[in-house]
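Known limitations

Files may contain more than one protein. Parsers should not assume a single record per file. Below, a two-record file is shown to illustrate correct handling: read the sequence, read the token line, then continue until end of file.
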Amino acid sequence: MKIRTLATTVVAMLLVSAVGVTGYLIGRHGATPQGDSGKNAGRKVLYWVAPMDPTYRRDKPGKSPMGMDLTPVYANSGGTKNSSDVTISPYVVDDLGVRTAEVKQGTLAHRIETVGYVAYNEDTVRSLHTRANGWIERLAVKSVGDRVNAGQLLYELFSPKLATAEREYLTALASGSRSLAAASSARLAALGFTDAQIRHLRKTRKIENRVSRRALNAGVVTDLGVREGAYVTPATQIMRLADLSSVWVLAEVDERYARLLAKGDRAIARIDAFPGKHWEGTVDYVYPDINPVTRTLTVRVRFPNPDERLQPNMFAQVVILARPTPNAVYIPSLALIRTGFSQRVVVALGNGRFDVCPVQAGFDSGDRVQILRGLEPGQRVVVSSQFLIDSEANLDAAALRLGSTKAGCKAPPAAGAPAAGTKPLRPASTPDNGGRP
């Protein structure tokens, strides 16, 4: 009984194995290879590629290092104008997640993003000097950084020359000569007396041995050159005052944007110390020289600062809204492949066909880039694919795989243009080197 049961089991196992082997052989010889659909029958296979590794190629069907079936890459039929076009299997396109975008034409706004720092508005800075030799008898300002208000006392000066001018004015008033009094009053004004001080002297008829100096505007002391008791001359800078109601931001802009910048351009500044807040200003001046080390151009932007939140030497993130370019051809920045030798894009020709085209790029504007030569509106370019964001070595291999034809290229760059000198591509791989370039 046991022998009969064992024999039955063995026979059943043999039948199952036979059915499995037969099905495998039928599937192996009867099925079309992956990607070799009926519409591709009779077309020449250039090579076989791993779906997940574009650089892994073989000259015959097989398995990839990940155990997946290799997919074929077909050459176009001879009926097309350019027989060197390359078609990629739809399976590869799906596996790589290829996305495309349309080449557009229109007004391209130039948004220049850079950094800078807050500085004093030099137009509001006042340098204080006395107009006669003398001594600082009293100094109301003690240190750099002190804030002063309009009309606040800054210092008192004793000067024999000023006292003599006061005495001459009082003598002219006493003489009753209007012309002499007017001349003496003009001399006092030339020596730095204000109209209020001259009126006070005419009213009191009393000489002030200490002549006071008050702030004409509110501001901050940026430099203090004297102390109490110091002897000063007209050449001595007593102090410098800066008004913070408006400030400058000195921004560094890449030299390639030099021709876009102009006085009056709008600008926006953001400060890390004030998250969520921004300031709007205008370009006040574009400096004429380029920094030889950083290759940047300094742009001076004026910002109103009524609450005085912006303080000198604060770090600022600056956006300059330069004049837009009309009728510009542009593509998403992701579509542009930049190398040390060339600029290029991958043009989608349709039906799984692609072409690598040299282009000449212009200015970047946010997530878009201007194209000067090489593309026309309405074409479609690849903007997302893993082989386009790989290393430069894989970019060359991807260009080989896609083909370097010019069927999809329009208006290529002129001879000598930066975009025209594309880097020569390496020859196709062979089984001798493991199928890699």
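...continuing to the second record:
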Amino acid sequence: EASQRAAGASWREKEGAVGEIGGVRSGREERRSHVSLTAAHVRSAAAAAAGMGDSGGSVVSVDVERISFGGKLCKAAASARLLLLVAVIVLLLPSADARRRPVHLRLYMHDIIGGPEQTAIHLIRNAGPPHKSLKGAYFGDTMAIDDLVTDGPGIDSGSVGRAQGTYMLSSQHEEVLVAAVTVALTDGPYSGSTFVIAGRVGIYDDKSELAIVGGTGQLRRAAGYVLWRMAKVVSEVYIVVELIVHMSVPANAAAPSNGSSLAIE
């Protein structure tokens, strides 16, 4: 009987030891799995940073291996490896931006709000409360435009496209308009392409900065900004707005034709 009790105790000890070994193995596999998942995320991030989704961009493949020491996962070494890879990704991000080609244009938008050559009309007028500082204007007043775009400030300058969209008096107190305008180019090196302008225009500011939030054709995925400036007051109903455009497009976008007066690069 004593022998049986001793054998039972020995068996329980072995069973406990097996359980501990199983727990260690389970924990080790869990940590390895965690590192493997982290590695997959790092590889995806590195590939995205290197390629930026362009069909012509190169993709850098980063391999994160399981790190073991003496049969056990070395967590410190794994953390160091991952930190190193994160640093590599950060360094890759500027190189992705460097694979963009700059585009600089100077355009003139002819905004005519009355008369036989009218290009802008009120969609909403006097619907909101009177503006606090603009006499005769009302909060929410909205204009739709289809303005001629030329390569010079004169009406007889070369026509290169149309500026189509809206601008709205969207502040009750400030003298600002919010504009959303698509510039459709019909002549010059980017004929058939468009870019989209969005932002605030200070009515009495010397110039305003608006964002370029996209484009099509040769200007697909355009990004940058526009300096919007009053160039000329022709009459009470006719103004000319200068648009100085600074944007960039992916380097593998179709190159423009040469010999245009639009480029100010």
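Parsers that stop after the first record will miss the second one. For reference, the second record is described as follows. The helical segments are 2-51, 75-98.
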